Structures are given as C-alpha cells and as structure tokens.
Amino acid sequence: MPGEVGPSLILIGVAATALGFLQANLAPLVAVGLSIIAVGLLTWGEGAARERVLLKLGEAGWENVSALILASGIPPKAYYLPSSVAGRPVAVISPARPGQVPRGAFTFKTGGGPALVLSTPGSKALELCGELPGDLGEALRSCVVNVLGFARSVAVAERNGEYVVEYAGVSYPEFYRGQVSGAALGSVLASVTAAVVAEVLNRVVEIAEERVEGRRAVVVLR
C-alpha cells in the first residue's frame, strides 16, 4: 500500500544505520541510512498531510448530504443496490427496502415517503476494483484487501440469512464521522463491503451491524 512506503523506508534506514555503526568498514553506510530515514519521514508525513487535506475538503459534500437527509425527514437508513437494479451501484435512503428504482433518478417517491439515491464510497470503490470474482469471499479480498488496502485479511460466513464479514488489520479513512450521512451509509469500510456484497449477490442489502475492536472489524449484512 502507498501508506506503507514511508514506514518501510524508515525501517530500512534504521537497519542500514545500525549496520554502519556496528561494522567499522561500513561507516559510509551510516550516512546512507540516515538519508533513507529522512526520505521515509518526508514521504510518511507528506502522505498523511495530503490525506487530511483531502478529507477536510470532502467534508462539504457529506455535510450537504446530511442536511438533505435531515430536510427530507427520511430515516437515516441506506439500502445498497446492485447495478442491475438502478443501472449503477447506488445506495437508496428510504423508509423501507425499495423494490424498483427509476433509472437516473436522484429522488423518487415510495409508498412510505420520499427516497434519495446516492453514490457512496462503496459505489466509487467498485469503479476502482473493476470486475469482481463470482465468489463473495474472493471478491471482498480482491477489492477491499488487494486493491483498496483497507484490511490485511477478510473472512465471510453466512448465518441465518445474514452475511458476517470479518476483517483483520483494518486501516481506512473516515469521511463523515459523526454526521447523519455516516449513520445512514455506515463507515467507509461497511459501505464498500455492502456495495461489493450487493453487486456479487445481485440483491439489495442493508448494514445490520458493524463494530470495530482495535484493528479488527465486523460488518453484518442482511
């Protein structure tokens, strides 16, 4: 992952510096090691700063989505739809699980009230991940672990009609912490998980539960 380049360079630099100190005939290696450490620190710090800037600039969009949800009076509950239903992978915020969604619609009416059609972090992740394997576990591993680098590993189990997805070694950005849009769509990791599951299973899914314990995360979908 790109975020690991800085720490990796720092470790290499520390090792080279230590070796240079320990071996008298390798004294020039100390200078090389210190240079590598400096580059690693710059790379690590620059990446973190850039991420903070991008997340801050993106807050405007999620604040507007939150305001729209509040203004419409819709309960903050998202249903993730595959592209076969809406023409593209989206999430629908509506009072009840939607049946059909008008193609290209941003809002539409249901029997229980208005509904919003939103692109989500999961929607955009599917664009990055490309064609997914037909096996759900392999699809999540390909997208969430290999392409996005949000976790080290993933395991999937089906229990009583629900899909329990467990991640280990999680690390992912949080776009909308504390906002209504976050309560509706779930965390970034949950959003991506729901979008992948909906697309692979070709069915509407919702996030029933999610929890994070240290660097372990569990997302339950139904």
Key terms for this structure?
21% strand; 49% helix; eight-stranded antiparallel sheet; globular; alpha+beta
Distance between the termini: 31 Å
Strand content: 15-25%
Class by alpha and beta content: alpha+beta
Biggest sheet details: 8 strands, antiparallel
Going across the biggest sheet, name each strand in turn. 3-4-2-1-7-8-6-5
Total beta strand runs: 8
- Bulk shape: globular
Gyration radius (Cα, Å) is: 22 Å
Mean pLDDT: 82
The sequence of SSEs as H and E is HHEHEEEHHEEHHEE
Low-confidence stretches: none
Instruction: Please bin the fraction of helical residues.
Output: 40-55%
Describe this structure in words.
The structure is a single chain. This protein has about 220 residues and is an alpha+beta fold. The protein contains seven helices and eight strands, in the order ααβαβββααββααββ. The chain has helices at about 5-20, 30-70, 85, 120-130, 135-145, 180-185, 190-200; strands at about 80, 90-95, 105-110, 115-120, 155-160, 160-170, 205-215, 215-220. It has an eight-stranded antiparallel sheet with strand order 3-4-2-1-7-8-6-5. Strand 5 (about 155-160) and strand 6 (about 160-170) form a beta hairpin. The longest helix is centred in the N-terminal third of the chain and has 45 residues, at about 30-70. It is globular. The chain starts with a helix and ends with a strand.
